[in-house]
């Protein structure tokens, strides 16, 4: 009996353990932290051995295969020992893909991947395909393969998940964009992070497809230096493409093998140029998978987006409050500010991941009337924008930040929470940060 060791008992870890058990592995789950009661219950039900608050090496180093949670860096001593022994250390995505015959759509990118994943799933589902959604969203891919496998999957994939693949190859890969993010995990080398994102295409062949943003010079330059085997389907807001999607006179045109779909962007439910790109990517996937044109159009007009991503919360005294808590890097915030049509009070800050704020200067000059800092250490934000905005205020809680914004914002203006940073200094995660924002707005 082969031994599967799972490091990390979160959603992906427990899902992998369930699938491993079903496929006849001897499974052991080990978590350096505490395991939640909910997951302990699942492990007990499946009679899977587990430990918490430690990694017992003798029980781990005898593994035939190890699945490590995406949160565990490769540099950890235990991982180094496993690598030295030649034990395969893989991600949940790699492990689970071996046990399904499904066609997989894999979506990655620094920003836009959640919206694109949910939008693609929405269109495919309405188009009549039996399709599951997993990866960074909802129930883990492994758990779904074990308990309710489907002929199609749309997977949202982070660079960490892609770092742990060996043979995984999605039939359709989408790369939304690449901007500096998580550089702390990549030796602060942007090229390491870029290479990590492109792993999504490394096992693809001539019968597979690669959909990407042709306006993103990081992507186009990398493709010139490192050609890939799959069929290229670019999308662009600025230039016509032969195969792929482009914007012309307020309409999206998608061409695949002389098949043409045209749809107006004026009716898109999601506003902003970045959402035109997300719509292009989702529509291109849908077109490849033979969804009817009318269904694609209808879905793009009805899909209202993702919680915590440019989510309109309330209008109070004609001031629009917008929750963009999911913006955990500068580029995501760039899109949010770019989508603002009137003067904006901007709530920003948190744990900085090596941010370079210079690309926001022109937008901040043009659109932001006041900045409200929400973080334990705000010095970098104050230094960055001190010359752009006269009014910069420091706050220590969401309630305080929203109350300050309420005092400053006037009729027909916006209050935008778009932190450009991780949330871990004051909140558990970006969801909690977004929920607190919404609660504070509702209490005004």
TrEMBL record:
SUPFAM superfamilies: MurCD N-terminal domain, MurD-like peptide ligases, catalytic domain, MurD-like peptide ligases, peptide-binding domain. One of its GO terms (molecular function) is ATP binding. GO terms for cellular component: cytoplasm. Cell wall formation. Catalyzes the addition of glutamate to the nucleotide precursor UDP-N-acetylmuramoyl-L-alanine (UMA). GO terms for biological process: cell division; cell wall organization; peptidoglycan biosynthetic process; regulation of cell shape. Signal peptide: none annotated. Pathway: Cell wall biogenesis; peptidoglycan biosynthesis. This is UDP-N-acetylmuramoylalanine--D-glutamate ligase. Residues 308-421 form the Mur ligase C-terminal domain. The lineage of its organism: Bacteria, Pseudomonadati, Bacteroidota, Flavobacteriia, Flavobacteriales. The gene is murD. Residues 107-285 form the Mur ligase central domain. Its EC number is 6.3.2.9.
